């Protein structure tokens, strides 16, 4: 570590090292001087040293050296000249910014060069491997090496400056300026990761400011200037967060602003609050939280109407319309329906938290689920007169959706109103926080609300409706979207709908038969039915006799017995159901008790953890205080050792507080500093007298030396002037001789010039002619090529048209042949049908003829049987019971009676049992005369059997 008697020597040494290219040694020399304890008194030389020091740090990108030097310089000039520290820091940031901009301008591809997720992260392993294996570096890698390090250094510069300036009341303006420049850096280069880190740094600085309230030079937030600076910083943070699209960080910025307002118990100016609520509307809209978005719009409307004197009527109308449409966009059902107890408590806390952020003071009740609701918002809009400021289209839409009952054409009436509303909006000239309002953003939510209202009204009128009818009534969405909306509404207990896609219908119902919408209708309907039944079926008169009254007594007793048995079974089932419900309730109560016990245990664990954290923080604070007390005592003792006074301050040990010891140490330091300053002033006065005496003695000697030097320089000037005149004359004479010598060659030079020009002109004309000929040949060749291509295209098109015409003719021919074949097939089919019809009629005639012949045969009398012989045959070969024989016809033993049907098996048995001579030759029906072959037998029945479509007929005979 080098030591210097004066700071000027260190600065001179550093400049010499920089001149020979040893910047690292120069930086180290200045760093040793700045961190040395010998130079604790501020002087102007230290400021120049700091300027040179920060130049070297920026040139070599040494952020750690810059931070250490600035911290030491802050200690030096904290109490003496704080403006010097401010100038050094501004110069430091200016240099870092200029170097970063210079590197950015030198790079050709900024987007690729800044493609880094985290500026504080080291190089990745793959980047190191690529740098080792690849010999030549590409342009992207060179850009990365050129631009990214400087932006890393600039980001580190902002962090260093913020860390040095934090919690210092004298540097609040510089702290705010640095934060704003850091925000602009993140915004300009889209550094989202660094922006989050920057917000966290500023948030921690404010937390430490509230935590350590006994610090010296601590900013006072109750002062208007300090509060305004802190609020401006947070509002700038909020704006940059919304422009970068970091909505979560924007919401945290909103919480920071609200916490700052609660800390100082003071509301900012209306212009800042307008920005506050304007950004809240954007944040809640991006998070799809329409209820809080509408409340933020209402607060923004109240502020603009109450404080903005330049607000035009058109802008006020647009803002009021946005408020009403935002309120209507809120879903009409309870979002927390069906949630658990813990979720409801969390939702209540979140609602209270957002209500505080928006600025609505609410009194949460135990029976209320939410502090903010859609119904209270709409009533507040009416009470505050917002509806009187909106456009006529918005009024009509509000009346249709909230007051009208149009179950069939609600959506059809809402659609043109929404079309008009979507065209409204534009830029606001008198509202700076909300530059533009577009009402079209609320159209999807309003279409969903109109769909819900229509389904709600239809469910009160219809029990079943076709899906096609619903799709026609709701022109906004397809039925798939309507089904999704209905499912969400059913889940929130807003509607009771069942969709049956197989039947293509929608069924509406209620959650219970005791629902409010059905209770009166069912009672009135029951009374009307009872009256109608009485009118149609009047009550019967009283029976006159007891027998008539008790005629159905057994039946009545049986019915009553069955009813009692059914009632008994119902009672048993109800008892079982009640027992099951009791068991279920006990199970639910047990689960609730366990959940409550678990919540109590979690709360106890949290309380123990909080107490442990508090004790740890208190212990850390006590250790810090003890360490500071020891340092103060050591400082005081060191000051006493350095002091030349014999009187020693009395240390009372534990009775003396930290503040007293710090004051004693500071007083001692101030006294020593004052003594040093007095010595320096006395020494400076002595040096002034000495310098004055030296200059008085040296003045005559300097005057004599000046006169002697003047005479010598005058003689020297005269001599040099004469020499210059003589040299000028000689040069002029030589130039004249050269001109005369070169003048003889002028004619030859002209002749040569004409010869060269003429030859070059001839060459140019030749080349020009050749070029024109070549161009004409190229033009002719291209014309021929175009002509050939045109002919080829014409030939191809003609061939395509011919092929197409032939194809069309072939298709027409095929169609004609198909039509001809179809006509011939139809004619042939007609002929076959006609032949089949003739055959069917002939068969009917034959069947009718056979039926008449059969009837005629049946009507004939039975044939006369022959007389019996001397020995009549017995029936079956056995005598009768009367002692004689029964006369049996001869034909009866061999064949059944005429006209009686005998099955085939029985017929075979009869033939086997009676092998007698055949009967006389008669027909099968017992008639005589003609043979069986002379008439057709009715047993051969011919039936037509159809194949296919009846075009062909085959005949098959079947014998019965």
Automatic annotation (TrEMBL):
<dbReference type="GO" id="GO:0002188">
    <property type="term" value="P:translation reinitiation"/>
</dbReference>
<dbReference type="GO" id="GO:0016282">
    <property type="term" value="C:eukaryotic 43S preinitiation complex"/>
</dbReference>
<dbReference type="GO" id="GO:0003743">
    <property type="term" value="F:translation initiation factor activity"/>
</dbReference>
<dbReference type="InterPro" id="IPR000717">
    <property type="entry name" value="PCI_dom"/>
</dbReference>
<dbReference type="GO" id="GO:0033290">
    <property type="term" value="C:eukaryotic 48S preinitiation complex"/>
</dbReference>
<protein>
    <recommendedName>
        <fullName>Eukaryotic translation initiation factor 3 subunit A</fullName>
    </recommendedName>
</protein>
<dbReference type="GO" id="GO:0001732">
    <property type="term" value="P:formation of cytoplasmic translation initiation complex"/>
</dbReference>
<dbReference type="GO" id="GO:0071541">
    <property type="term" value="C:eukaryotic translation initiation factor 3 complex, eIF3m"/>
</dbReference>
<keyword id="KW-0648">Protein biosynthesis</keyword>
<dbReference type="GO" id="GO:0043614">
    <property type="term" value="C:multi-eIF complex"/>
</dbReference>
<feature type="coiled-coil region">
    <location>
        <begin position="568"/>
        <end position="642"/>
    </location>
</feature>
<keyword id="KW-0694">RNA-binding</keyword>
<feature type="coiled-coil region">
    <location>
        <begin position="666"/>
        <end position="693"/>
    </location>
</feature>
<feature type="compositionally biased region" description="Low complexity">
    <location>
        <begin position="946"/>
        <end position="960"/>
    </location>
</feature>
<feature type="compositionally biased region" description="Basic and acidic residues">
    <location>
        <begin position="804"/>
        <end position="859"/>
    </location>
</feature>
<feature type="coiled-coil region">
    <location>
        <begin position="93"/>
        <end position="120"/>
    </location>
</feature>
<dbReference type="Pfam" id="PF22591">
    <property type="entry name" value="eIF3a_PCI_TPR-like"/>
</dbReference>
<keyword id="KW-0175">Coiled coil</keyword>
<feature type="compositionally biased region" description="Basic and acidic residues">
    <location>
        <begin position="931"/>
        <end position="944"/>
    </location>
</feature>
<feature type="region of interest" description="Disordered">
    <location>
        <begin position="804"/>
        <end position="960"/>
    </location>
</feature>
<feature type="compositionally biased region" description="Low complexity">
    <location>
        <begin position="883"/>
        <end position="899"/>
    </location>
</feature>
<dbReference type="GO" id="GO:0003729">
    <property type="term" value="F:mRNA binding"/>
</dbReference>
<dbReference type="GO" id="GO:0071540">
    <property type="term" value="C:eukaryotic translation initiation factor 3 complex, eIF3e"/>
</dbReference>
<comment type="subunit">
    <text>Component of the eukaryotic translation initiation factor 3 (eIF-3) complex.</text>
</comment>
<dbReference type="InterPro" id="IPR054711">
    <property type="entry name" value="eIF3a_PCI_TPR-like"/>
</dbReference>
<comment type="function">
    <text>RNA-binding component of the eukaryotic translation initiation factor 3 (eIF-3) complex, which is involved in protein synthesis of a specialized repertoire of mRNAs and, together with other initiation factors, stimulates binding of mRNA and methionyl-tRNAi to the 40S ribosome. The eIF-3 complex specifically targets and initiates translation of a subset of mRNAs involved in cell proliferation.</text>
</comment>
<keyword id="KW-0396">Initiation factor</keyword>
<dbReference type="Pfam" id="PF01399">
    <property type="entry name" value="PCI"/>
</dbReference>
<keyword id="KW-0963">Cytoplasm</keyword>
<dbReference type="InterPro" id="IPR027512">
    <property type="entry name" value="EIF3A"/>
</dbReference>
<feature type="domain" description="PCI">
    <location>
        <begin position="316"/>
        <end position="513"/>
    </location>
</feature>
<comment type="similarity">
    <text>Belongs to the eIF-3 subunit A family.</text>
</comment>
């Amino acid at each position: 570590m080098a030591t210097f008697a004066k700071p000027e020597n260190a600065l001179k040494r550093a400049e010499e090292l920089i001149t020979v290219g040893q910047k690292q040694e120069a930086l180290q020399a200045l760093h040793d001087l700045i961190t040395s304890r010998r130079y604790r008194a501020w002087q102007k030389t230290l400021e120049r040293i700091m300027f040179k020091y920060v130049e070297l740090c920026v040139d070599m990108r040494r952020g750690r050296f810059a931070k250490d030097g600035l911290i030491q310089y802050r200690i030096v000039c904290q109490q003496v000249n704080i403006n010097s520290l401010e100038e050094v820091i501004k110069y430091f940031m200016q240099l870092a910014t200029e170097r970063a901009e210079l590197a950015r301008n030198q790079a050709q591809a900024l987007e690729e060069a800044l493609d880094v997720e985290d500026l504080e992260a080291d190089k990745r392993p793959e980047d190191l491997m690529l740098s080792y294996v690849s010999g030549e570096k590409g342009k992207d890698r060179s850009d990365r090496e050129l631009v990214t390090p400087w932006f890393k250094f600039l980001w580190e510069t902002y962090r260093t400056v913020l860390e040095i300036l934090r919690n210092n009341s004298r540097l609040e303006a510089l702290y705010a300026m640095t934060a704003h420049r850091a925000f602009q850096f993140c915004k300009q280069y889209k550094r989202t990761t660094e922006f989050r880190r920057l917000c966290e740094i500023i948030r921690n600085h404010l937390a430490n400011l509230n935590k350590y309230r006994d610090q010296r030079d601590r900013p006072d937030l109750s002062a208007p200037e300090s509060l305004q600076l802190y609020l401006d910083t947070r509002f700038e943070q909020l704006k940059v967060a919304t422009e970068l699209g970091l909505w979560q960080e924007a919401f945290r910025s909103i919480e920071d602003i609200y916490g700052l307002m609660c800390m100082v118990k003071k509301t900012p100016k209306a212009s800042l609050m307008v920005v506050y609520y304007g950004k809240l509307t954007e944040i809640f809209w991006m998070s799809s939280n329409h209820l809080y978005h509408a409340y933020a719009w209402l607060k923004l409307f109240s502020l603009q109407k109450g404080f903005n004197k330049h607000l035009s009527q058109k802008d006020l109308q647009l803002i009021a319309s946005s408020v009403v449409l935002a309120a209507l966009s809120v879903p009409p059902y309870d979002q927390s329906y069906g949630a658990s107890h813990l979720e409801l408590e969390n939702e209540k806390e979140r609602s209270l938290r957002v209500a505080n952020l928006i600025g609505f003071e609410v009194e949460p009740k135990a029976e209320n689920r939410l502090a903010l609701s859609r119904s209270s918002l709409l009533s507040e809009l009416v009470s505050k007169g917002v509806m009187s400021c909106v456009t006529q289209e918005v009024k009509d839409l509000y009346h249709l959706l909230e007051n009208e009952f149009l179950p069939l054409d609600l959506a059809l009436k809402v659609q043109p109103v929404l079309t008009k509303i979507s065209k409204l909006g534009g830029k606001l000239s008198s509202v700076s926080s909300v530059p533009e309002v577009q009402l079209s953003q609320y159209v999807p939510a309003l279409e969903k609300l109109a769909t819900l209202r229509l389904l709600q009204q239809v469910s009160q009128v219809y029990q079943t409706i076709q899906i096609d009818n619903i799709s026609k009534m709701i022109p906004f969405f397809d039925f798939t979207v309507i089904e999704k909306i209905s499912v969400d509404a059913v889940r929130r207990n807003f509607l009771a709908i069942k969709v049956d896609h197989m039947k293509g219908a929608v069924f509406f119902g209620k959650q219970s038969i005791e629902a409010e919408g059905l209770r009166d209708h069912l009672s009135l309907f029951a009374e009307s039915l009872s009256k109608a039944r009485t009118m149609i079926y009047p009550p019967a008169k009283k029976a006159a006799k007891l027998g008539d009254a008790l005629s159905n007594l057994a039946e009545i007793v049986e019915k009553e017995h069955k009813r009692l048995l059914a009632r008994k079974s119902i009672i048993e089932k109800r008892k079982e159901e009640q027992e099951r419900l009791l068991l279920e309730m006990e199970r639910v109560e047990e689960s609730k008790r366990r959940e409550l016990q678990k919540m109590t245990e979690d709360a106890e664990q949290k309380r123990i953890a909080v107490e442990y954290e508090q004790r740890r923080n208190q212990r850390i604070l006590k250790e810090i205080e003890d360490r500071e007390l020891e340092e103060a005592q050591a400082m005081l003792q060191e000051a006493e050792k350095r002091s030349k006074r014999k009187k020693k301050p009395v240390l009372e040990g534990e009775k003396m507080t930290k503040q007293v010891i710090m004051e004693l140490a500071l007083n001692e330091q101030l006294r020593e500093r004052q003594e040093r300053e007095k010595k320096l002033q006395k020494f400076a006065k002595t040096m002034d007298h000495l310098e004055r005496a030296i200059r008085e003695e040296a003045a005559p000697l300097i005057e004599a030396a000046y006169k002697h030097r003047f005479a010598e320089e005058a003689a020297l000037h005269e001599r040099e002037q004469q020499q210059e005149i003589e040299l000028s004359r000689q040069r002029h004479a030589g130039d004249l001789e050269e001109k005369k010598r070169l003048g003889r060659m002028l004619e030859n030079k002209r002749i040569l010039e004409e010869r060269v020009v003429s030859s070059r002109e001839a060459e140019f004309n030749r080349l020009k002619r050749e070029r024109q000929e070549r161009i004409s040949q190229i033009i002719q060749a291209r014309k021929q090529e175009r002509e050939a291509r045109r002919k080829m295209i014409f030939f191809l098109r003609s061939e395509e048209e011919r092929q197409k015409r032939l194809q069309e003719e072939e298709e027409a021919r095929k169609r004609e042949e198909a039509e001809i074949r179809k006509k011939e097939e139809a004619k042939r089919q007609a002929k076959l049908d006609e032949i089949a019809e003739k055959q069917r009629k002939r068969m009917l005639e034959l069947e009718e003829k056979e039926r008449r012949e059969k009837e005629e045969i049946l009507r004939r009398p039975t044939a006369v049987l022959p007389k019996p012989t001397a020995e009549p045959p017995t029936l079956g070969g056995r005598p009768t019971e009367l002692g004689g024989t029964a006369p049996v016809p001869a034909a009866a033993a061999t064949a059944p009676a005429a006209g009686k049907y005998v099955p085939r098996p029985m017929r075979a048995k009869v033939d086997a049992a009676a092998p007698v001579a055949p009967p006389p030759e008669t027909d099968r029906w017992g008639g005589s005369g003609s043979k069986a072959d002379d008439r057709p037998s009715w047993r051969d029945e011919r039936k037509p059997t159809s194949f296919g479509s009846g075009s062909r007929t085959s005949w098959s005979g079947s014998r019965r």
